[in-house]
Write a structure and sequence with these properties.
alpha/beta
């Protein structure tokens, strides 16, 4: 029976094994310990790739393939031309994460935050490839990723606090009708928010502004991306959403300082009262108010139009989303927290035990 390899994909502004920072501070687990290393200590093949911290889901999926397959990152001739950047990136031919990438490869893909969109698009490309890239590239020059036909290599997909349908954290900042100054947030949390934003600001270059993570996570764009990603009938899908809010005035929600890292309190409180209708007609109402400080709980459970059901450990089904109970914690929990330290190790051990019942 083929061996299963567990791939942990980081979120926005994250890092992985190819980055120097990983040696000092692993992304998954943080100061509580390296989750990926602990899984390896249990005899599992587990890796943490390093995809673009702020790049689009497409670019990150292409980089993920290059690292797993041991090849040069190829973003596609059509994509590179449309989004105005180089077709090729780093070459991983001499440093692949998986020693042997072939038809016996079996993957469990685990994505935190924007890593969720990354692994879902990666699985879509493995399965169906890209007709646009096939049409723009001679067969001899085409990346195998865009040929497709490798979907059976994906066994399961797990998303953790992922903005699967987008996050209002971006929409509210771009909505001129929303006056954030009217929302009461203690001054100290405004300072923490400034610190967060100073460290996570997009470092833009000459590429098309649509080719960035912050574009993909806006509600309309995230849901458009969902329409391009199939729910694969042979794959087990599991999701975990988080809620770190408490009741506010009326039906609003505010970030609970007991649950929320100081870095996320301001954004979580703004998300807890933001409402409106997007250009594409997505209605943002009170269902969107609960959040983990960066991602709406409602959005993180499953793609809106995908088959889904509450998680049942005795009946985990393929071809649809098994939505696990919401966790009452914030977005940084899976990373071991930031200012407010967390210990996600018990959660990840429970997750491993669940996955081992289906793979």
């Amino acid at each position: 029976m083929p061996n299963v390899t567990y791939i942990f994909c980081h979120g926005l502004n994250g890092w992985g094994q190819y980055d120097e920072r990983y040696q000092e501070q692993p992304y998954f687990g943080g100061t509580s310990g390296d989750v990926v290393a602990r899984w390896r200590e249990q005899g599992l093949e587990a890796y943490a790739p390093s995809v673009s911290p702020q790049g689009s889901a497409w670019d990150r999926a292409c980089e993920l393939y290059a690292q797993l397959a041991g090849t040069r990152a190829d973003y596609g001739a059509a994509h590179a031309a449309e989004y105005k950047h180089s077709r090729f990136g780093r070459d991983f031919s001499n440093e692949p994460l998986i020693p042997t990438w072939d038809d016996d490869t079996r993957l469990v893909l685990i994505g935190h935050s924007f890593g969720g969109a990354t692994i879902r698009l990666f699985a879509e490309l493995l399965t169906h490839g890209s007709s646009k890239e096939r049409g723009a590239t001679p067969a001899a020059d085409l990346s195998p990723l865009f040929e497709g036909g490798m979907g059976e290599r994906v066994v399961a997909i797990v998303t953790l606090a992922a903005p699967t349908n987008g996050t209002t954290a971006y929409d509210l900042a771009l909505d001129p009708s929303f006056n954030a100054k009217r929302v009461k947030v203690p001054f100290k949390y405004k300072l923490w928010d400034r610190i967060l934003k100073s460290h996570t600001k997009i470092k833009a270059d000459d590429r098309d502004p649509r080719d960035w993570a912050n574009f993909d996570m806006q509600l309309d764009n995230a849901q458009a991306l969902n329409r391009r990603i199939a729910t694969l009938p042979h794959v087990y899908y599991l999701s975990v959403a988080c809620d770190a809010t408490k009741p506010g005035t009326g039906d609003t929600r505010v970030a609970d300082p007991k649950l929320t890292d100081p870095l996320f309190v301001k954004t979580g409180t703004l998300m807890g009262c933001y409402h409106g209708t997007t250009k594409a007609g997505c209605v943002v109402d009170s269902a969107w108010y609960p959040n983990d400080g960066l991602v709406n709980t409602f959005s993180a459970r499953a793609p809106f139009d995908a088959p889904q059901k509450p998680f049942d450990p005795n009946n985990i089904e393929r071809g649809g989303w098994n939505v696990m109970p919401d966790l009452h914690t914030d977005h940084g929990f899976f990373q071991g927290g930031f200012i407010k330290k967390r210990d996600p190790q018990p959660f990840f051990q429970d997750l491993l035990e669940i996955l081992q019942t289906i793979v």
